[in-house]
Protein: Diiron oxygenase
Amino acid sequence: MELSENHTEKSDNNCILILDKLGKSWSSRAQVKNDEIEVDLIYNPDHDDFIDSLLPFHEHPRYLEIDDETRTLILSSGWIAYNEKTIDIEAKIISPVCNQLIYSELPGTNNHIIRWLAAETLVDEAYHILMVLNTCYTCRKQRGLLELKLPSFDLVNNIEKEVSRYSHDWQKKLVRLAACVVSEVFISDYLSLLANADEVQPVNRITTDYHRKDELAHSSIFRNLTKEIFHHLSYKEKTFFCQVLPLPVHWFASQEFIVWETILNQLNFKYTNEVIGDCRAESEINLNRIDYSELIQLASEVGVFDMIEGKESFELPRVIILNFHAST
Ligand SMILES: [Fe+2]
Ligand SMILES: [Fe+2]
Structure:
């Protein structure tokens, strides 16, 4: 089975029309068209770089009793990890799919509007990488964290693990597409957590908010792209896509304890084993922080729930899509 079989089929929905409008609005909406933020000039070390509630151990007694200096460093490390994870999402999850779209490697994408929009989106994502690299570097310099090293994130590791389970190229591409689509649906919420945090370092909030604005458009882009691609998949490919689409929900919910363990050890936090051990024992993932409604809506619009396999995949115990029955 080849993914390219149906490339020349015409669409019978209005996705291309919507994608065309989104492409035409790029010049006026894209953050890359605005002046760059002078991060070094705005950075204020009196503000924390991150918020306690985003740390997976923020309620642990050992964290609640730490001194201000260590707490500041942990929060700054949280900001660095948040951004390094954002870079991974852009560089390892979204950009490869944009490149596949530019080369029309996915069904239904042999279309100038889609290629053009994918190129615009790729520019946006490259700009986001530049923005977060700049803010991260300033934070590292200001807080003496230039040497802080992070291991790879569960999110990326899980995608690669899933991709490696399949032998066919079309299966691998659809796993990456599912991860990309879910990322683009979830990233706005992920960014809102910080963009709306009044007490945090102003430049971090501003940077995150600029990024979030682009991602609101990307969410519509990928919603319509998914519809268009799904429409052109064979029954076998549709079934497979339905099965893998909910998986990234769990990958996104990872509390990234390996990353945090590495960070806390480098900061010489003496209760690292106790804190990470206790939190891990509770749960490796935190599904409470994830709003599934948009993914459920996307799956519904795309036609995933019109297929028995789609319904079943969203009901699998390992997926645990909360309120699924209530939402459909
Ligand atoms: Fe982005
Ligand atoms: Fe994006």
In short: The chain is about 65% helix and 0% strand. The chain has a mean pLDDT of 91. The CA atoms of residues 90 and 126 lie 7 Å apart.
